[in-house]
């Protein structure tokens, strides 16, 4: 049996085994009588066009994307909803420049959860369909942040 230690290092969750090696792949998390598989690396858990998987997030991302963007930021960082929401709205008003901010935040989310991709893909997602990208990020955070909230 392996001893696995979970710790938060800066903004990244660090998972190490008893020999202090980083653990990658699937992590089994036992919460009460339930065992959950938490995927720590790889690809997005849902596609960018799977908005209907979470109707609340879909509607918020389409009708008020600045609010969902602020929620996503707050979920990742713990605070900062209002400044990020207002910042996104101001950049959007300046000619859809909000895609630059979205690209930066999407990259941070990918790095934190070891999701494959690159800055060009992030930029294209936010330029072509900002609402879909914000909704996908929200779904990803809901699915992956189960682990963070259960160890805090």
Describe what you observe in this structure.
The protein is globular and about 35 Å long. It has helices at residues 55-63, 65-77, 81-93, 98-113, 119-128, 130-151; strands at 4-9, 12-17, 26-31, 34-39. By secondary structure, the protein is α+β, with helices and mostly antiparallel strands. The strands form two sheets. A two-stranded antiparallel sheet has the order 1-2. A two-stranded antiparallel ribbon has the order 3-4. Mean pLDDT is 78; it is low at 1-13, 16-26 and 147-152. The chain contains six helices and four strands; from the N terminus they run ββββαααααα. α1 (55-63) crosses α2 (65-77), α1 packs across α6 and α2 (65-77) runs parallel beside α6.
What attributes characterize this protein structure?
152 residues, alpha+beta, two-stranded antiparallel sheet, two-stranded antiparallel ribbon, 4 strands, disordered N terminus, disordered C terminus
Radius of gyration: 16 Å
The arrangement of helices and strands along the chain is: EEEEHHHHHH
How do the strands line up in the largest sheet? 1-2
- The fraction of residues assigned to DSSP E strands is 15-25%
Q: Tell me the helix content.
A: 40-55%
What distance separates the N and C termini? 24 Å
Summarize this structure briefly.
By secondary structure, the protein is of the alpha+beta class.
List the helices and strands and how they pair.
Elements: E1 4-9, E2 12-17, E3 26-31, E4 34-39, H1 55-63, H2 65-77, H3 81-93, H4 98-113, H5 119-128, H6 130-151
Antiparallel strand pairs: 1-2, 3-4
Helix pairs in contact: 1-2, 1-6, 2-3, 2-6, 3-4, 4-5, 4-6, 5-6
């Amino acid at each position: 049996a392996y001893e696995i230690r979970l710790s938060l290092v800066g903004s990244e969750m660090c998972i190490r085994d008893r020999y202090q090696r980083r653990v990658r792949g699937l992590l089994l998390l036992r919460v009460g009588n339930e065992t959950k598989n938490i995927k720590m690396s790889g690809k997005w858990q849902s596609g960018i066009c799977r908005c209907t998987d979470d109707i609340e997030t879909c509607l918020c991302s389409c009708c008020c994307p600045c609010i969902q963007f602020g929620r996503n930021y707050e979920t990742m960082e713990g605070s900062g909803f209002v400044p990020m929401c207002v910042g996104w709205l101001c950049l959007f008003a300046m000619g859809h420049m909000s895609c630059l901010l979205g690209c930066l935040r999407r990259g941070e989310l990918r790095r934190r959860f070891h999701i494959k991709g690159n800055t060009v893909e992030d930029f294209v997602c936010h330029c072509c369909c900002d609402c879909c990208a914000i909704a996908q990020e929200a779904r990803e955070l809901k699915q992956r942040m189960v682990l963070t909230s259960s160890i805090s």
